[in-house]
Design a protein that fits this description.
The complex is a heterodimer. In chain A, 38% of the residues lie in helices and 24% in strands. By secondary structure, chain A is an alpha/beta fold. A 6-stranded mixed beta sheet of chain A has the order 6-7-8-3-9-10. A 4-stranded antiparallel beta sheet of chain A has the order 2-1-4-5, with helices on one face. The longest helix of chain A is centred in the last third of the chain and has 18 residues. By secondary structure, chain B is α+β, with helices and mostly antiparallel strands. Chain B has 2 domains: 190 residues, no CATH class; 191 residues, no CATH class. In chain B, a hairpin with a 5-residue loop joins strand 7 and strand 8. Classes of the chains: A alpha/beta, B alpha+beta. The complex binds adenosine-5'-triphosphate and magnesium ion (MG). The site of magnesium ion has 2 residues of chain A, from helix 1.
Chain lengths: 249, 408
Amino acid sequence: MDKYMVQLHNIIKFYGDSVKNQVLFDVTLDILPGTFVSLIGPSGSGKSTLLNILGTLDQSSGGDLIIDGLSMISLSENELADFRNRAMGFIFQFHYLFPDFTAMENVLLPYRISHSGFPDQRILERAKYLLTKVGLENKLDARINNLSGGQQQRVAIARALINQPKLILADEPTGNLDTKSSDQIIQLLREINKEQGSTFIVVTHDRSIAARSDRIIELVDGRINNDFSPQELGQAKTWEGLGSYSCRD
Amino acid sequence: MSFDFFLAWRFLKEAKTQTLLTLLAITIGVGVQIFLASLITGLQFSLLDATVGSSSHINITSELAIPTSILNSSQPTDDLISSQVSYIKRDRDLSNWQPIIEELSNYSEISAISPLVNGSSFLQKGTVNRPIQIKGIDPPSADKIYKYRDNIILGTSSISGNDILLGRELSEDLNLTIGDSIQITTPQGSQAIFSINGIFDLGVKGLNTTWVLMDISRAQNLLQKKGDISVIEIQISDVFSSETIAKDLRTKWPELKIETWQSSNKQLLSGLKSQSSSSLVIQFFVQLAVLLGISSVLAISVVQKSKLIGILKAMGLKNYRVGRIFLLQGLLLGLLGSITGCLVGYGLIRTFLYATSISGAEISFVITTTPLSYLSSITVATLASILAAFLPARRASSFNPIEVIRNG
Ligand SMILES: Nc1ncnc2c1ncn2[C@@H]1O[C@H](COP(=O)(O)OP(=O)(O)OP(=O)(O)O)[C@@H](O)[C@H]1O
Ligand SMILES: [Mg+2]
């Protein structure tokens, strides 16, 4: 059971009450711990929908979702909240940071949700370590409003990592950034993945992210259309192929 | 809990202008409410004190029931008689009154018991004649109720033998002073000469022009009452418990007539009551306006913060805690606003007292505020603010994080 980090069994998803619009069709998928997965596909193919179901933020209309050996379907809303806090980190296209908080305060938020009282020295050190890791050691006490877009996204990444989650879900983390910033972010994500052994599932239109992942899953019209490893396919072929997999440069 | 509190505090701190305006509204609301309430309470207290402070709270008298007509029935049964006979009731003297007084002294709620001989008479000075009320009293007991000893403006308060006290207006009217002799004539025709030993001012013109105080046994003698008295006057420590005590006394002595001050002050009481209720209505609407303000400010804040609420939920903050963060904001606003409101209320009272004192207007009442009244204002305002935060809190707790995140 615990062999896989994530298992999806026949996940389906409908939207709409009267007119049912099916967005996901029997998606079945196993992901090994420590894998860096890119989820690609054309706009509207259901990537975000799938990622939100994976993150237990959205409910599937059918099928089974098992994360770290635990069936998510059987958990109550409060249990899911606890699980998300403990085991998952989220990075979105928009950073959703608290604008009036400092970088440190933002990074500490997920920790403070589940720990009453003031953060102790150990966790403060970890927050500093993560901010240093994302290159913001000089911006610990800077207010979010005074940071650039790339810096803000890096704070959001540090925030997603504070509770040492096993699974990190990112929806177009570089979608809002210039090429240089996105390169830094990808490098960072990959490094963290290697260092901490956490599993990454990253929705992306970014060819350079996809090319550097362990596994690429392509979704088309709510179905898995392709599932391959760039390492196995070879660098050149992957790069070439990704062009048609609805990736932009 | 402490994180929720921390967030509630931060949300308020960040929305500085909104928060300050809301606090100002609560401050004004609570301040006005406290000022108004203490003004009305002070006014009513002094009115009440003027009315019942120096008079009897419960009167015990005896009455005689005289049948006025009996039905001309061929065979009147007892039942028929009791249902068909009407009576006229007349006040009668109390004869065996010492045991009653003894019994009454066992009540801890009763603060003064005074036997009194009452009677209308005429006072003559030379050829001038004035109607008076004779009050035959037992000085130590009567003083507890009338407080006449402290209000002697001329002479002494001692009454023994033929020494009497009379009021300021009566003495001025007839040009009487201490040491003067006057004659009192009862309706029954008995007469006696008395000597004025003191002049009192009870602060009420009606009493000062008619009351003549003398020793109880002298009055019994003059009014030919043998050992009887007219009434037992009672004061109690809590004037509003009079009805309860009276009820108790009525079951003990069903044959006696027991009346409370309320029955002779119905108009005053209903006046006070409507004054109280209109003041309550005003206070209620002031508070309501404030609460609607809090509610709408928090509702706006929920919308403004919807993205942050969404991300907090995604990161594992449970729904009920999100709600609690907004309830806590209501609590903080209510608590802080009502504390400053108390200060403002206190300031308004001080200012009012000062303004009336320099304008020369003499206010005839004291404004009293107790720490308890402030505490209850703070409690009520805080609870109400939490209540006002309820709808915004529910809204925030029911947010679906995915809606917020999807819509960027
Ligand atoms: N709340 C919703 N109600 C109805 N339909 C929805 C809703 N959310 C998404 N959809 C539909 O589901 C389909 C998949 O949407 P989704 O956002 O998952 O696509 P995506 O692959 O993430 O696209 P993009 O690359 O543009 O982000 C789309 O056709 C979209 O219109
Ligand atoms: Mg998407």
